[in-house]
Amino acid sequence: MASLDITGIVGEAKDEMIVTRSDMNHANEIYAINRKDGSMHQVTHENDEAYHSIKTGKVEMRKVTLKDGKKMSTWVIYPPDLTLTKNTLPCFTAKAARKVKYHSSIASAGISS
Length: 113
Prior knowledge:
Elements: E1 4-13, E2 16-23, E3 26-34, E4 40-42, H1 48-51, E5 59-65, E6 71-77, E7 91-95, E8 106-110
Antiparallel strand pairs: 1-2, 2-3, 3-4, 5-6, 6-7, 7-8
């Protein structure tokens, strides 16, 4: 299942809520969510033409354990057509899902073999 973010509520129309939505490979577009059954359909298609010529990478969510024992969600975004070998390493960033008492709420890390 792809991870996505509802990035804003635009308004309401009849039995639908109008929202903006994005994911790691796509910019915001406007979607309508049916309030009765939760189904979602895309309203705008501003970037469809551009996406036809762009290869997207695989996105994986991983949980890491922090020093205090709590879990934090991180995302690994693989380049398109990547074949992992011992000599190729993906880069990823960790985005805090909660407020953390560190110097920055965004940390970066690497994967070692």
